[in-house]
């Protein structure tokens, strides 16, 4: 896991949605002095869902046995204390599990409980949360 960690005394955390750079909850990582390591993608073993009723809007990443997709993610480095504090604040149905990354590494990151995808929109085709959010913004007509 050496390429996913900024230093041996930090823990890499994979984020997939509202904690990405420029998204509404990224300030939570910044407040914990987290450091962006890199942007990457998961292996093609995941589905991404737009979860219903979350504020701000959040996705849920679920590992699947087939018909998955690579999903864009970011890896952030946190101290062990910051990682513990961050994880303690994660609301259900989200949680932390081990994600497989396209470069062969694995790291702890956001996953969703399977029950939460009932009625959620499968947005895997967008390849990531940013692309999905951008699709919701009306394109202004050229003058």
Short synopsis of the structure:
The protein is of the alpha+beta class.
Give keywords.
single chain, about 140 residues, alpha+beta, Hypothetical upf0131 protein ytfp, 5-stranded mixed sheet, 3-stranded antiparallel sheet, 3 helices, 8 strands, about 30% strand, globular
Radius of gyration: 15 Å
Could you name the CATH topology? Hypothetical upf0131 protein ytfp
Structural class determined from secondary elements: alpha+beta
- Major sheet details: 5 strands, mixed
Helix share of residues?
A: 10-25%
Mean of pLDDT: 93
In whole angstroms, how far apart are the ends? Answer: 50 Å
Question: Can you name the CATH architecture?
Answer: Roll
Count of discrete structural domains: 1
What does this structure look like?
The protein has 143 residues and is an alpha+beta fold. It has a single domain (2-132), classed as Hypothetical upf0131 protein ytfp. The protein is 16% helix and 31% strand. The longest helix has 9 residues, at 80-88. The protein starts with 10 loop residues before the first strand and ends in a 7-residue tail after the last helix.
What's the layout of helices and strands?
Blueprint: E1 11-15, H1 26-31, E2 35-41, E3 46-50, E4 59-63, E5 72-78, H2 80-88, E6 94-100, E7 106-112, E8 121-122, H3 129-136
Parallel strand pairs: 1-7
Antiparallel strand pairs: 1-5, 2-5, 3-4, 3-8, 6-7
